[in-house]
Prior knowledge:
By secondary structure, this protein is of the alpha+beta class. It has two domains: 1-35; 37-135, PH-domain like (Roll), CATH 2.30.29.30. 32% of the residues lie in helices and 29% in strands. It contains two helices and eight strands, in the order αββββββββα. Strands 1, 2, 3, 4, 5, 6, 7 and 8 form an eight-stranded antiparallel beta sheet that branches. The longest helix has 34 residues, at 2-35.
Amino acid sequence: MLPDVLLSAEVLVGALVVLLLLFLVLTFLRRRAIGRGKPLVLCAVRLPGESRWKVGMARYGTTRLDWFRLGGFTVRARAQWARAELQLDTPHGLQGRERIGLIPDAVGVACRYRGRSFEVALAPGAYTALRAWVESSPPGLNVNVA
């Protein structure tokens, strides 16, 4: 009787380890597929009227910024913002309950895109990169300006 219980427990533990490894491999492959050789940054988004931040990854493209939820299996962006139409306000520190565990020193930035407002939260260095990306022009745009 005891060997049967031990065998069942071993099979259960083995199955859980295999599931955990499968989850980790799928997470790694999803992150690689999302990145596609482009810069990724940990970034949280909060829409108007919401109190919670949704943590995800932002991918800088040539002409747009794509945002993906951190969890999940899809490689489609949950939000996309065209570089030329994205406006950033001044960053502010996050206090108290606004703080984000995965981004402990995050700054919040109010944004506007096509008349809609939302907020992003990212590390100070990532904010600097985002600001520089928004303010610069993509390669090949306005190259013949005198």
